[in-house]
Specification:
This protein is an all-alpha fold. The chain has one domain. It contains 3 helices and no strands.
């Protein structure tokens, strides 16, 4: 997980929010409504992206915890060596 991965995630979040913002803008223009769709779709995009980030982060941390639990500690390594 490097800076490229972080950059990709940032672009994905910004891009998703921007796309739904534009869709909401054009829906509002087409239907002649106030900026209701623009605001609602933007908020939905932000909420969905944060939920996705939470689940991806949780899965990554769970994997790392399993990997650490499987590694022997220094004390266990000393006991096995003697």
């Amino acid at each position: 997980m490097g800076s490229d991965d972080s950059m990709t995630k940032g672009i994905e979040i910004a891009g998703t929010v921007l796309v739904l913002f534009v869709i909401g803008f054009f829906l509002d223009r087409w239907l002649g409504t106030a900026p209701i769709f623009m605001i609602v779709l933007t908020i939905i995009a932000m909420i969905v992206q944060f939920i996705k980030m939470y689940y991806v982060y949780s899965a990554q941390m769970e994997t790392k915890e399993r990997q650490r639990a499987a590694m022997p500690t220094a004390h266990q390594q000393e006991a096995a060596a003697t």
